[in-house]
Design goal:
This protein is mainly beta. It has a single domain, classed as Maltoporin, Chain A (Beta Barrel), CATH 2.40.170. It is 7% helix and 56% strand. It has six helices and 49 strands. The strands form nine sheets. It has a 27-stranded antiparallel β-sheet that branches. Strand 24 and strand 25 form a beta hairpin. The longest helix has 21 residues, at 3-23. It is globular. The protein starts with a helix and ends with a strand.
Length: 853
């Protein structure tokens, strides 16, 4: 453990201890303030009506039906009944939420709401969807695919939340709240077994330490599943699951109106990488600049086949068998979180809450980007022994929130401040096979160049916010809020750049391709065997080494005011409506600009991207009808984006390899309607139907496309990199679809509770369908349409609950129809005329057992 981590953790604990000492012995005649996770959030059916749902979407507890926000809320029991075991499962039940594992890779949270998110998960990019665990913002995507272990509730807020949540919520926010200590000796054990070697375990134990003063709660879990994709080339399995973790919470009640909630959580992931199929795009006009160079100098002379032939060999095996030469492909992540939440009811009017938090996140992966069994394009961040270094992030945050109820309970006020600091660093080793120009006396001049790129970020954010809710009368209320945010973002980029003048053959051979810097490929099929025993190592012939270092640092500063205003009318006086509101909201969101790791192809200087600004106009209707047997919540929204941040593909002029970049689409619009319903036509029968209809339109989006020299297209500039010449062409991409925004979303579920003498039986069937989800990357892949997919899932569950409700047994099957579709990949069509594709998990089934004690 580093000294800096020890100091931060010691400081956090000292802060909590100081707060405890400050308020020891202080007593007010107030109720004990409830810590996060103690409020009920439920959609369970009680008798013949639907239970009230409590949310904290506006940083205070209130009924879902009185909250003027498009929000979906689930209790821990709801998650279990629907078979939602992980955050990624929300995509099947929540309108306009799409969650995938790092563009198809395992483990990294890649979350979109209403078509807003981030496909690039580098340390210098942020997502437009904020994920919060017990009120703590999770700044990096590693570890954000949370397992649903000992969860009190999950809330999904759709649309920009720029006033109360602020940072990086232009698309929305997902709030995870773990169960708080209950004050009772109790516990739970759960196990899940199934096909594909599925074996999961989780347990929870609540222990009162000092009655009424110190209470504790502990949970732990392990999630494992065998891989379902076979790498035929190396005889290994990919796309498995292997992660574990735990949590400890201590609730210290020092007075009737004052408590401290200490929270520690840990997670570890260590699993095989993704299995990637390959698609060939023969009609991508002008594409394949790297493939052309590789085919003529390496692939055809060395293997007798072009790269597209190797791609077709992979494709012919189907989605669950692949050819990949990257030995030991892995994904690894480790997260550690510490927080201290202080709740103080100052008097009958004012309440104060502070959250002090520390979070450490480490992530690493080894990815075969090319989708062929040839050492063509690899990305490594698995540590120095594999040529890279793990991405490590340390974040510390402090939030203070003051709430008040004044003027005879007519005015609810929220005000606060937020400070966030984050430092990240890591090295990616991107290996590229291809010709290196400018090497005298060596023929053929073809190398496998593995050049480390190190990124170090230093980000700071400061904000202040306020929001007021004024009850004009018994029916009407008005909410207005404002937040000011300022962000300083710095990127240091260190690139090892090949210097051809400093190369000589030293006669050695290398068993593994990955682990050195540069290899010369002398030609011949034997060079491409799994051991790579015939690839000759290149050593420096000067003391300076074989690479030069390019070191650049750039900082940007952004600030924004993000207001909101909402008008609501209660509908409890309208005939036929038991409860509900109609509301209209105008809200603003902000996603800071920053520094991209991509370089200007001419000046070779770091480039920047502009802040993303969004205005959302929304009208909503929430109603409980038929004696609370029918709940219908609808939202109609129109969202306008300026300088929306989208991922693009660039060329690194220093190494000749591809590089991810962030570019601003000047103007885009998303509009749609969302519907969520629950209906209880007769006792014990629950019907759920959710839907969304969306229309996204990019108004203005100009990008640069990398093409083969002499492509003949207008607006091109010839640029020579270390890998040779390419055409950089201006291209209008406004005719493309917005990424990860489905045109239609449908979800339906039928559940019946059947009581018997031996317990309750609950059969449940649910189906989800999402149409036209766009997952292309560069211009060539977007034009083809192959990455635009429909995704569906039919699942079924049969649950038995004992009469004492302490035992539960469930048989389940997911993806009953074994539907297969693309969920991600690396579609670098403009680069090599091929694209990697990753498919969803096939049919799974098994048993779940749960016991309370």
């Amino acid at each position: 453990m580093s000294k800096s981590k020890l100091k931060l953790r010691a400081g956090l604990l000292l802060s909590a201890g100081f707060a405890a000492l400050t308020f020891t012995g202080t007593s007010f005649a107030q109720d004990v303030p409830e810590p996060p996770g103690s409020a009920e959030t439920s959609t369970r059916v009680e008798g013949s009506g639907i239970d009230e749902i409590i949310t904290t979407a506006r940083k205070r507890e209130e009924s879902l039906q009185a909250t003027p926000i498009a929000v979906s809320a689930f209790s821990g029991e709801d998650l279990i009944e629907a078979g939602l075991s992980n955050l990624s499962d929300l995509r099947n039940v929540v309108p306009n939420v799409d969650v995938q594992n790092g563009n198809g890779a395992t483990g990294v949270g890649n979350i979109f709401i209403r078509g807003v998110g981030a496909r690039n998960t580098g340390v210098n990019f942020d997502s437009g969807v904020g994920v919060y665990l017990d009120g703590i913002y999770m700044g990096r995507p590693d570890g954000t695919l949370l397992d649903n272990v000992d969860i009190a509730n999950v809330q999904v807020l759709r649309g920009p939340q720029g006033t109360l949540f602020g940072k990086n919520t232009t698309g929305g926010a997902i709030l995870y709240t773990s169960a708080a200590p209950s004050g009772e000796y109790e516990g739970n054990l759960q196990a899940r077994v199934g096909n594909l070697g599925r074996f999961d375990m989780q347990g929870t134990l609540n222990i009162p330490i000092s009655e009424g003063i110190i209470d504790s709660r502990f949970s732990a879990y392990v999630t494992t599943r065998d891989g379902f994709v076979e790498n035929v080339f190396l005889d290994e399995m990919l796309s498995d699951e292997n992660r574990w973790g735990g949590k400890a919470r201590f609730l210290i009640t020092l007075a009737d109106d004052f408590n401290i909630d200490l929270n520690a959580n840990y997670s570890k992931t260590d699993q095989a990488g993704r299995g990637q199929d390959c698609e060939y795009f023969p009609n991508a006009e002008g594409a394949g600049w790297q493939a052309d160079a590789q085919n003529s100098t390496v692939f055809i002379p060395g293997t007798g086949q072009a790269i597209e032939d190797h791609c077709l060999d992979n494709n012919a095996l189907g989605p669950d068998k692949v050819l990949s030469d990257l030995e030991g492909s892995r994904y690894e992540a480790e997260t550690q979180g510490l927080s201290a939440t202080v709740n103080w009811d100052i008097n009958e009017t004012f309440s104060l809450k502070t959250i002090t938090a520390l979070r450490d996140t480490d992530g690493a992966d080894g990815i075969d980007l090319d989708g062929v069994a040839i050492p063509s394009l690899h990305q490594i961040t698995l540590g120095q022994d594999r040529g890279g270094a793990k991405r490590e992030t340390r974040q510390i945050s402090q939030e203070v929130t003051l709430t008040a109820i004044v003027i005879d309970d007519a005015l609810d006020l929220v005000a606060g401040g937020y400070v966030f600091s984050e430092e990240s660093d890591g090295s990616t080793n991107l290996g590229v096979l291809g010709p290196i120009f400018g090497v005298a006396g060596l023929a053929p001049i073809t190398f496998y160049s593995s050049s480390p790129l190190t990124r170090a970020t230093d980000n700071k954010a400061y904000s202040a916010f306020t929001q007021a809710d004024w009850k004009v009368n018994d029916q009407w209320s008005v909410t207005a809020g404002l937040r000011f945010t300022t962000e300083n973002r710095q990127l240091r980029r260190i690139q090892d750049v090949l210097n051809p003048a400093n190369l000589t053959l030293d006669g050695r051979t290398a068993r593994e391709l990955v682990g050195g810097n540069v290899w010369i490929i002398p030609g011949g099929e034997a060079n491409f065997n799994p051991d790579h025993g015939h690839i000759h190592v290149v050593s420096p012939n000067t003391a300076e080494g074989i690479t030069d270092v390019n070191d650049q640092t750039l900082q940007v500063k952004n600030h924004a005011w993000t207001p909101m205003i909402s008008v609501q009318r209660k509908l409890d006086d309208v005939g036929g409506i038991d409860d509900g509101i109609i509301y209209g909201t105008i809200s603003n969101g902000f996603l800071s600009g920053g520094v991209s790791e991509s370089l200007d192809p001419v000046t070779q200087a770091l480039t920047t991207y502009e802040p993303e600004n969004v205005w959302n106009y929304e009208v909503g209707l929430k109603m409980d009808l038929l004696d609370r047997r029918l709940r219908m919540n609808t939202a109609l929204y129109y969202t306008q984006y300026d300088d929306r941040q989208l991922t693009t593909v660039t060329v690194n002029p220093q190494t000749g390899s591809v590089a991810p970049g962030l570019i601003n689409a000047a103007e885009s619009v998303v509009k749609g309607v969302e519907l969520e319903t629950i209906f209880i036509p007769v006792d014990n029968l629950e019907l759920t139907f959710n839907a969304a209809f969306n229309d996204g339109d990019i108004k203005e989006y100009t990008d640069t496309r990398i093409l083969t020299p002499g492509s003949g297209q207008a607006g091109c500039t010839l640029v020579t990199s270390s890998a040779g010449p390419v055409d950089l062409c201006d291209v209008d991409r406004s005719d493309e679809n917005l990424p990860r925004l489905p045109t239609e979303v449908f979800f339906g579920a039928v559940q019946y509770s059947y009581p018997t003498e031996i317990g309750m039986f609950i059969p449940r069937v649910q189906y989800s369908l999402r149409n036209n989800i766009e997952q292309c990357f560069d211009r060539g892949s977007c034009l083809d349409g192959r990455y635009r997919t429909d995704q569906d899932d039919l699942s079924a569950r049969l649950t038995w609950i004992s009469n004492k409700e302490d035992l539960r047994l469930t048989a389940f099957v997911n993806n009953l129809t074994d539907s297969r579709y693309i969920i991600g990949g690396t579609p670098l069509v403009d680069v090599v005329r091929t694209g990697g594709t990753v498919y969803n998990v096939p049919r799974t089934y098994g048993l779940e057992l749960s016991a309370d004690f």
